[in-house]
Amino acid sequence: MKLPMILRRRLLAAALAAPLGAACAAEQDSYAAARQRMLAEVEADMRATARSTGRNRLDPRVAAAIGKVPRHRFVPAQLADRAYENRPLPIGHQQTISQPFIVALMTDLVDPKPADRVLEIGTGSGYQAAVLAELVARVYTIEIVQPLGEQAAALLKSLGYRNVETRIGDGYLGWPEAAPFDAIVVTAAPDHMPQPLVEQLAPNGRLIAPVGSRYGIQLLQLLRKDAQGRAVTRSVLEVRFVPLTRAR
After folding, report:
1. Is 98 part of the annotated catalytic residue set?
2. Per-residue pLDDT at 225
3. Model-level pTM?
4. From 30, 98, 125, 158, active-site residue
């Protein structure tokens, strides 16, 4: 029996698409065990630092996001086999992708809610933005290194993250026209808490940033605003980040 032309076309399209879909699934499956091992190491670090952080385990939603996002897509191809080590890795342009534990901890500490609008300073390869995008309604992310920012934007789009907006620019200044934000995550170290970011944080908002000099001690600081807009800051633990780059 001769099939109608439209049905033949649909069957052909399905046959052509199947190998690609299977390859993508196989790629994800090949890293699934590594992601779970990484998540177990992150949870162990949460328990080990609980006295300083006040958290002995990840929120289940944050843990699910860390266990889902394909970190191997956010590192250079030659480092893909090391993507799920619990350590930072170079991504070019003298920048790094943060240690998974630190990404998870910072995400957990800002208590992301499904309806939140979140600002990220320092897109890098896009990994932190992807984790946040799994948890909140909208992510705005700024990167000052143009090649990194453009590459991250393309990757996030290709992975289906439609709730992320990217921008090339000076993150110290924030994103005033999109403010206020329910949470702000800073992934490079300024030498002081940027006042423009504090001003762009909504009442009851949370801002987390590593603060300190390139060569001195950096402290991960969590700033919270109350309903009246008054800010209280506490230091969480010592960290090491690349410095926050400003526009010249």
Report:
1. yes
2. 96
3. 0.88
4. 98
